[in-house]
Amino acid sequence: MTDAVVAEAPGVWSIRVPFPDNPLGYTLVYALEAGAGGPVLVDAGWDDPVSLTALEDGLAAIGTSVSDVHAVLVTHHHPDHHGLAGRIRELSGCRVALHAEDAKVVEMVRTAERGPWTKRYKALLELCGAPAEAVASAGAAIPQGAKPAVPDVLIEDGALMDVPGRALRAIWTPGHSPGHTCFHLEDTGELLTGDHVLPGITPVVTVYDDHVAGTSDPLGDFLASLHKVSRLPTTRALPAHRAPFDGVAARAAEIAEHHERRLAQIEEQLAAGPKTLWAIAERMEWNKGWERLDTFARHLALGEAGSHLRHLAVTGRVRLSSTEPIEFSVA
Question: Which residues, listed in sequence order, are joined to residue 236 by a DSSP beta bridge?
Answer without folding.
Answer: 246
